[in-house]
Specification:
seven-stranded mixed sheet; alpha+beta
C-alpha cells in the first residue's frame, strides 16, 4: 500500500464521499455480476444518509489518499449480539483496487473491538467480492455456496 494512503474512523461530513465511493464501485466493478437495476437499487439504498445512520452504530472506517476518500468498511454487531459481528460496506474505488487497500480494510476491521469480542463474524458478500473475502479466510456460512434472495453470498469466519 502506498505511504500516502491512511485509514481513519469515519467522521461527520464523510457520508457524501463514502456514498460516492460505493456508487462508483458498484457501477464500475460490480456491474459485471449484477443487472443495472440491481446496482441502482443498491446505490439508492447505500446513500449518504444511510452511511451517516450506520456510522452511529457501526465502527466505520475510511481509506484516504491524502484528503480524498478512496475506500471504506465497517463492522458492527450481528443483530445486536455480543459474540457475533458483521462486516459491512467494504468498498475500494476501482482505480485503487489491487493495491492492498481491501486487505488493509479487512485487517483494520479485524483489529476492531467488535471483531475481537466476537466468536463468529459474518459478511453479506456480493458475487464480485466473494473471491476476495474467501482469500481473507472467510468461508460459506453453513457450507452453502449459492447466492440468496438478495443476490449475496453469506460468508463467515470463526475465531
Amino acid at each position: 500500500m502506498q505511504e500516502n494512503i491512511t485509514i481513519r474512523r469515519f467522521a461527520a461530513g464523510d457520508e457524501e464521499a463514502v456514498a460516492a465511493v460505493i456508487a462508483t464501485t458498484l457501477r464500475t466493478t460490480n456491474i459485471k455480476d449484477y443487472s443495472q437495476e440491481h446496482i441502482e437499487n443498491d446505490v439508492k439504498a447505500l446513500s449518504a444518509e444511510t452511511m451517516a445512520q450506520r456510522a452511529q452504530w457501526m465502527h466505520f472506517y475510511v481509506v484516504c489518499d491524502g484528503n480524498t476518500i478512496v475506500g471504506c468498511g465497517a463492522i458492527g454487531p450481528y443483530w445486536g449480539k455480543e459474540d457475533e459481528s458483521s462486516l459491512f460496506n467494504v468498498f475500494v474505488l476501482p482505480e485503487y483496487q489491487g493495491m492492498g487497500i481491501g486487505r488493509a480494510i479487512i485487517e483494520t476491521l479485524e483489529a476492531d473491538e467488535f471483531f475481537l469480542r466476537a466468536k463468529r463474524i459474518e459478511i453479506p458478500a456480493s458475487i464480485t467480492a466473494c473471491p476476495f473475502y474467501r482469500k481473507m479466510g472467510y468461508d460459506y456460512k453453513n457450507g452453502i455456496d449459492i447466492i440468496d434472495e438478495e443476490q449475496l453470498y453469506r460468508l463467515e469466519k470463526f475465531r
